[in-house]
Amino acid sequence: MTAVERHNYDVVVVGAGGAGLRAAIEARGQGLRTAVICKSLFGKAHTVMAEGGIAASMGNSNPHDNWQTHFRDTLRGGKFLNQWRMAELHAQEAPERVWELETWGALFDRTKDGRIAQRNFGGHEYARLAHVGDRTGLELIRTLQQRIVALQQEDFADAGDFEARLRVFQECTVTRVLKDGERVAGVFGYERESGRFFVIEAPAVVLATGGIGKSFKVTSNSWEYTGDGHALALLAGAPLINMEFVQFHPTGMVWPPSVKGILVTEGVRGDGGVLRNSDGKRFMFDYVPEVFKDKYATSEEEADGWYADPDTHRRPPELLPRDEVARAINSEVKAGRGSPHGGVFLDIASRLPAQEIQRRLPSMHHQFRELADVDITAEPMEVGPTCHYVMGGVDVDPDTAAAGGVPGLFAAGEVAGGMHGSNRLGGNSLSDLLVFGRRAGLHAARYAQALTASQRPAVADAQVDAAAAEALRPFSAEPAEGTDGAAPAAVGAAGGAAGGAAGGAAGGAAGGAGGAVAPPENPYTLHQELQQTMNDLVGIIRKEQEMEEALTRLADLRTRSRRAGVEGHRQFNPGWHLAIDLRNMLLVSECVARAALERTESRGGHTRDDHPQMDRRWRGVNLVCELASPPDQLAAQDPAAGQITLRRRDMPPIRADLLDLFEKDELRKYLTDEELGQ
Ligand code: FAD
Questions:
Q1: Angle at 245 between CA 243 and CA 249, to 5 degrees
Q2: Which of 298, 299, 266, 253 is nearest to 127 (CA)?
Q3: Where is pLDDT greater, at 49 or 507?
Q4: Residue nearest to atom 14 of ligand 1 (CA)
Q5: Which of 48, 173, 603, 673 has the most C-beta neighbours closer than 10 Å?
Q6: In this predicted complex, what is the ipTM?
Q7: 172-201: pLDDT as tens digits
Q8: What CA–CA distance (Å, rounded) separates 140 from 270?
Q9: DSSP 8-state assignment for residue 620
């Protein structure tokens, strides 16, 4: 039996970004003992990088705004493939969640008369994003962290222990959700610093692990986004939906190469920035799609007038939803009208006074000056699409955030699917985290509360042993027979400190004289090849043959990843961490590729070169990804065979009173005649 540290809680939240922290606050608020686990330091989650703001129809900027308008915008942005009940709850509850943040100490930018200021973003009919300059995520995380500390202080006053009911396990990675029969029983993980294993037993687990961007080469996402929660859900038996929809944000940095992909906030365009090609032309007017024709300006004069008077002008086309803008930039570059480094120009310098740019966009000003030696108050930025967000995720119940088919498992935030349909609007993620983070924490708590002591699940030793063996495999990577040996490719431990509870010899034994074996694989090489494959073959514009090729390459990478080997010990060993993360990235990448191949239309964050039109027959269809064989047999399964099965599922019809919020003419663009008849 593997020796592991064991803890016992009522609710475990995996992830300490906006969704995870909001869930933990709620579960603790219900009086339950709650653990939060995160890969990085507490407070450094991905949410901290969010720039532009939180979408909520508070009506501070325009009194006409309300939840119905926000709901309409969200469905239009998602091309009507959104889980409509989630979109409804989100639009209704977002203002309350923002006001709640303020009562917990968040300091938003203000209007002249002292209300929370709201800014414009693509796809939102009114200025709707509550913000703190272009550092909104930082303020959101700071506030939630502060709230957690306040609750811990209450617990200290009550029980003499800060961690009596809420404990954060930072710099720890969860590698498995443990189960007792069909039900969740806890999680297995390791401390990143020491490599020590631990188990947290709990009847309810909330996944709040964020996205999958690190499977792509050019991305705005940080190192943590390796699709862990998506893979943990699959391995626990919960399905994923909408995995074909990956958002390529139109404006990432393109130069210099070391910073390619880093985000340039949509706030630049929201505050008046315009996109130009190498001829100096403001090209977005040429790319307004049919479904949006009546809502966007057709001349520069009309577009510019909208900033001062949105009620009598139509919106500038630079503020179309992200998928439209990203495709337009891609087309301009392809047509030879790009900027010197393969992007287009984003110009705010000629649109606002320098001082105003520095006030509204301080991070962007700093980012370009430090990283690209560009002064955005004086010259345009070069920008191009970057992999930013995954709309697909765990299939959840809209009201309770419970994951399908696995009692005790919940998911919220970017790891959950459905809310954003085929394309997320900017600002709708931060509000999603708060709305569904709260719901996930609440319902996880209720689920755990309903169990008597004898009904609580137990963690079997065999599961712990299997999880430990799986995590240790990179230290004894099996060389493959049949090829000439070469120098071992296993990577060493960073820091090289001795010790670590198990460690073991690396797979570097391969190679040597006349060996008919292939050396262990270097996890970094595998990761790079995976990123290149996804970027080139399942990227912003997709073709059938290329995606088939991607699936072949993914099968090869899976086979080789079984031999991913590392040297050294479990202490401070990033090569080992990556070898473990590869399992997750390969699983989610296969989901993306399979679903993208199956959907023979273009919609939102899924563009098919060979099926360029949106097809109304696909509107009501979710593609559901599940594990092809039982999770405990995954290791024994032939890696060259697919690990994911795909099925089509009809979405529930949109409720009639919600459909009534739209003009019939607009619905005709999305719904089939049969749906309209009903
Ligand atoms: P995260 O904040 O990423 O948190 C994930 C957590 O899970 C982390 O704590 C991580 O350590 C932990 N974790 C992951 N795997 C494991 C594991 N195996 N074990 C333990 N812990 C694990 N959205 C907006 O609405 N407005 C914006 O202005 C905006 N700007 C953005 C700017 C940038 C640069 C980027 C990249 C995104 C932006 N987004 C924005 C999107 C938004 O920030 C994210 O979608 C959102 O923060 C995701 O939050 P989350 O709570 O789901 O996950």
A1: 135
A2: 266
A3: 49
A4: 209
A5: 603
A6: 0.99
A7: 999 999 999 999 999 999 999 999 999 999
A8: 20
A9: T
Residue in the block written with tokens 């000439």:
484
Report which of residues 517 and 456 the model is more confident about. 456
CA proximity to 239, closest of 391, 86, 394, 392: 394
Closest atom, ligand 1, to C-alpha of 220: 36
Provide the angle, in degrees to the nearest 10, between the axes of the packed helices 136-159 and 84-103. Answer: 70
Mean pLDDT on 143-171: 97
Q: What are phi and psi of 623, to 5 degrees?
A: -95, 125
Dist CA 188 CA 634 (whole Å): 17
Can you give the pLDDT at residue 481? 56
pLDDT (0 to 100) of residue 487: 36
Atom of ligand 1 nearest to the CA of 39: 11
Write the pLDDT tens digit of every residue in 582-621.
Answer: 999 999 999 999 999 999 999 999 999 999 999 999 999 9
Q: How far apart are CA 271 and CA 307, in angstroms?
A: 8
Encode pLDDT of 409-445 as tens digits: 999 999 999 999 999 999 999 999 999 999 999 999 9
Nearest-CA residue for atom 6 of ligand 1: 15
The pTM of the full predicted model, rounded to 2 decimals, is 0.91
In terms of residues, how long is the chain? 678
- Which residue's C-alpha comes closest to atom 39 of ligand 1? 50
Please report the pLDDT score of residue 477 as a whole number. Answer: 76
Residue whose CA lies nearest to ligand 1 atom number 26: 427
What single letter denotes the amino acid at residue 592? V
Task: Tell me, in angstroms, the distance from the centre of ligand 1 to residue 429's CA.
Answer: 9
Tell me which residue of 601, 595, 600 sits closest to 538, measured CA to CA.
595
For residue 362, give Cα distances in angstroms to 136, 365, 495, 598: 12, 5, 36, 43
CA angle at residue 602 from 276 to 334, to 5 degrees?
35
Catalytic residue among 269, 314, 553, 558: 269
Residue 122: which pLDDT band, with cuts at 50, 70 and 90? Answer: confident
271-292 CB burial, b ≥16 within 10 A, e <16:
bbbbbbbeeeebbbbebbeeeb
Task: Give the distance (Å) from ligand 1 centre to CA of residue 539.
Answer: 21
pLDDT of residue 311: 86
Kindly indicate the confidence band of residue 322, based on its pLDDT and cuts at 50, 70 and 90. Answer: confident
More confident residue, 56 or 482: 56
269 as an active site residue: the answer is yes
pLDDT of residue 221: 94
Mark whether 446 is an active-site residue: no
**What value does the mean pLDDT take over residues 307-320?**
91
Cα 225 to averaged position of ligand 1 atoms, centre (Å): 8
For ligand 1, pick from 209, 322, 431 the residue to mutate: most ligand atoms within 8 Å of CB: 209
- Closest ligand 1 atom to residue 19 Cα is 51
Q: What is the mean pLDDT of the chain?
A: 92
Residues lining ligand 1, Cβ inside 6 A:
14-20, 37-40, 45-47, 49-53, 136-137, 173-174, 208-210, 220-221, 224, 228-229, 263, 389, 413-415, 426-430, 433
Bridge partners (DSSP) of residue 410 are 206, 402
Minimum-distance ligand 1 atom for the alpha carbon of 232: 18
Residue with tokens 């989610």: 588
State in Å: Cα 142 to ligand 1 middle: 14
Taking only the tens place, the pLDDT of each residue in 493-507 is 333 333 333 333 333
Kind and range of the H or E element at 648? strand 644-650
Q: What's the rounded Cα separation, in Å, for the pair 183 and 194? A: 30
Please identify, by atom number, the ligand 1 atom nearest to the C-alpha of residue 18: 51
Pocket test of ligand 1: the residue of 48, 266, 430, 434 to mutate, having most ligand atoms within 8 Å of its CB, is 430
State how far the alpha carbon of 337 is from the alpha carbons of 331, 343, 348, in Å. 9, 9, 20
